[in-house]
Amino acid sequence: MPEKIEFKFKSPNESPGYLLANLTLLWQRKQKKILDPLNLTHTQFVLLASLGWLSRENDFVTQVDIANQGNADRMMVSKVLRTLEEKKFIHRQEHPTDTRAKVIKLTNEGAEILQKALIVVENTDIEFFSVLGNNLPSFNKNMANLIDKNKDE
């Protein structure tokens, strides 16, 4: 083993990856705490929210649409949607024009749980990120920029 391990950054607080990982873990813990009482994981919430968002403009939302909305793995989306269907939060029906696809719809129970989840998640996000104050729009813009520049990798 070398005598001294060399790091590019002088301290962990200079490493954007380290900081992002730590921030993400803290944020995920808060999300878990508020979603557990609703019987939702964060991934389930994200897919329900994607479905809810996409359904505002499209009556024929598919699994692929949901995966694309969240830049998510299609197989993972399929498994999570099966779980949401077992929980009676969504149902699938035949697509009117694409025989390979199913249309995913929120059930009444799914819409109710999504609305409850949106309220607690959005309020928790506002509280969590409130320390940024007027810098929040810039922070969001920078995150969106990073996502856009790295999403195809």
UniProtKB/TrEMBL annotation:
By its UniProt entry, which InterPro entries does this protein fall under?
HTH_MarR-typ, MarR/SlyA-like, WH-like_DNA-bd_sf, WH_DNA-bd_sf
Q: Which UniProt keywords apply?
A: DNA-binding, Transcription, Transcription regulation
Highest rank taxon of the organism? Bacteria
In what residue span(s) does the HTH marR-type domain sit? 1-152
Q: Is Nuclease among this UniProt entry's keywords? A: no
Pfam families in the cross-refs = MarR
Q: Which GO terms describe its molecular function?
A: DNA binding; DNA-binding transcription factor activity
Identification of the protein by name: MarR family transcriptional regulator
Protein species of origin = Marivirga salinarum
